Amino acid sequence: MTQFSLNDGSVVVVIGSGAGGGTVADVLSNNGVGVVCLEAGGRLDPADIVTNEAEMFGKLTWLDERQGSGIAPPPFPVWNCKTVGGTTVHWTATSVRLSEHEFHARSYYGDMAGTTLADWPLKLADLEPWYSVAEDRLGVTGTHGIERLPASNNFLVFEAGAKRCGYKEINTGNLAINPAPRDGRGSCLQLGFCTSGCAVGAKWSTLHTDIPSAEQSGHFELRTEAMAVKLNHDNNGRVTGVDYLDSDGKLHTQATRAVCVAGNTVETTRLLLNSRSGQFPDGLANRSGQVGRNYMRHVMAGVVGVMPGQVNLYRGAHQAGIIYDERHHDEARGFSGGFLFETVNFTPESMARFLRPGGWGKEYAKLLEQYERMAAMLIVGEDPPMAGNSISLHPTRKDRYGLPVPVIHYEHHNNSKKMLRYGLDRGRRIYEALGAEQVVEMVDVFPATHNMGTARMGNDPATSVCNQWGQTHDLDNLFISDGSLFPTSGCANPTLTIIALALRQAEYLTELIQSNSL
Amino acid sequence: MKRRDFLQLTVSLAFASLGGRAAADGGAAGIPGDNGELLSGVVYQLFPHERLDKDVYEQVTEQLSGKIGQSAELTAMMDDALDVLAGNGNERWPELTQQQKTASLEKIQQTPFFRFVLNETLGGIYQHPRTWELLGFEGSSLEFGGYINRGLDDIDWLPE
To answer: Which CATH architecture group holds A12-47+80-514?
Structure first.
C-alpha cells in the first residue's frame, strides 16, 4: 500500500471518504495526483455488514455529541455515518438529478421573504455530463440502459394508490442498486436493510468501489480513525497542512498542496469554524460570514397507511418507488418548489420510534400490531435556505476529541409548512384511495439525513463561500466537496449531485495541479 | 457524568443501546422488592401486547434493572419516579385498574427517568424476535437468498 510522509507537501488531503470525498480521492489518485484521505471512522470488512438494524446502527453511526434546536431533534439532530464510505454505507441509493428550475431558485421563485434564496453559479447543462458519468459509475437504474428494480408490495400499493389519484410518473426509481451484477458488484436480493449497509454489496458505496479503485491507483493512502481537527494556513492565503488526531488521540500534521473537505456538512462546517485564526477570526474561508449559515435538510415527512390487507413493507429495497409528478414548480399549489414521494421501510423498532415519538400505552401497542398491513412513504421536498438555520459551535461543551460540540438549528419556512401540508394531504389520499383504515403522518420526527448549504457556492464572495468549482473564495487551495456547497436544496436526494460536483471538481483540481497553477 | 449528559447519551444511542439479544446475557443485580414489581408493571404498560409472551417483558425488565442497578444516578431517579407511582393510592400496582395504571404513568411521563425507561423498553421489545413474530416481521432474509423470491410482490388484495 502506498504511504506518504507527513511532510510530503505534494499531496492533496481529502477529508472524508463518503460520496464527495471518496469520489474526489478516486478521480485524483487515478489521475496520478497523490492523495491522503483522512477518515474519522474505521473500515468495515464485508463480513461486518449484517442484516441487523440495531447492530449496524452502532457500527456505522456518528455518535459523538451533537445538539439540535428548533425542530432538529435535540439529542440526535443528524443521522450520518462515521466509517470508511461515510454515509454511502447507510444511504438508500436514490439518485435523481436536480431539475433545471432548481438551479435557479431565486429567479424562478422570486423574492421569498425570510430566505437567502440564490441561483446556483452553474446550470443543469453544466452538470449534465457529470450527472451522466456519475450515473454510470454508480450504476443508476433507469439510466445507461440499466433496468429498474422489481416492484415490492410497498411499491405496488404506492403505485396503485397514486394512479387512482391521477399521478402518472411512477416507477421504482433511479437507484444506485444493481438489479443485475455490474461493475464488480452483485445484484440486489431485496434484503430490506439498505440503511444498515448492503450485506451483498449490490448498493453502490465508496466503500465497495471508489476506495478500492483509489487504492489500486498507487497514489492513494487511506488513514482510518483519523479525525481532522484544524486546517493551518500561511500568510499568502494557502492551506499548508491538516492537523488530525489518530486512534490513540495523538496529534499529527499532514502537509498538503490542496485540501478537499467532505465531512458531510456538519463536520465540514465544524472544521472550518474550528480553524479560525488571526487572519480568519470567524473561521477559515469565512470572510463572507456564510459558513454555517443557510443550513438545509429538505422538507421531510412520512406517511404510513394501515391498509386493508398485508403489505409487509420490510421486504425489499427501501426507496425503490418514486412518484415524480409533484417535483415541478407551480405557484398554483400555494408554495414554491416541488417534492418527491418515495417509498420507505421501517423495522418494528424504527416504526415504534417514529410513528408517534414518545408514544406508549395500549392504543399505541394496538396500532403497532397492524405492522404487517402498513405501507409507508416519505415526502422529500425543497426547503429554502434561511440565514438563521445554521450549524454553529457550542460555546462550552466539548466532545471526546476536545472539539466544541456542533449545534444544529433548523426551523421551517412558511413555504415549507405549506408544502408539507399539501404533500401530507396528497400522500394520505394515495392510501385512502385503496381503503386505508388509518393514515398516520410523521412530521418533524426524523433526524436529518440530507445536509446542505453551509458553505454555499456563488459568484459573489460577499454572499457565498465557494465558487462554482467548490473552491473557497478566500483560499485558492481549499475546496469543499460535499453537500455544504448547495446554494439551494432542490427536491432530489442530494448524493448524486454531490458526486457530479465532486467529479467536476476533481478534474478541475487535477488540471490546476498538472498545469502547476496551484 | 452529569444527569443531562447521561440522558443525552442514552437517547442518542437509541437504536444501539439495547437489544433483545443482549437480554439473553442476563442482567446484573435486579431491583428488589416493591420497586422491582413496579418496574416490571411499568414495562408491560408501556407496550402492552396481550399476545406477546410474558418472558419478553421479563427479559426486558431484567436488563433494565441491571442497567439501573449499575448507576446510582438512575437508581435515585427511579426511586423518585416510583415513589410517585406508589403514592398514587393505597392499592399495590398489580391491583390498580388499567385506567389507574395509565393515569399514574401519565403523571411521570415528562420525567427523565420515564423517558429513559421508555427508550430502553421500546428497544428491548421491538428488537426481540418474539415481538417480530407477533408483528409479522421476518427480519434477516440473507440466509434464504433475500426476499426477491420470497414474497417481495406477493400482495393479493389490490384492486384491478
So the answer is: 3-Layer(bba) Sandwich (3.50)
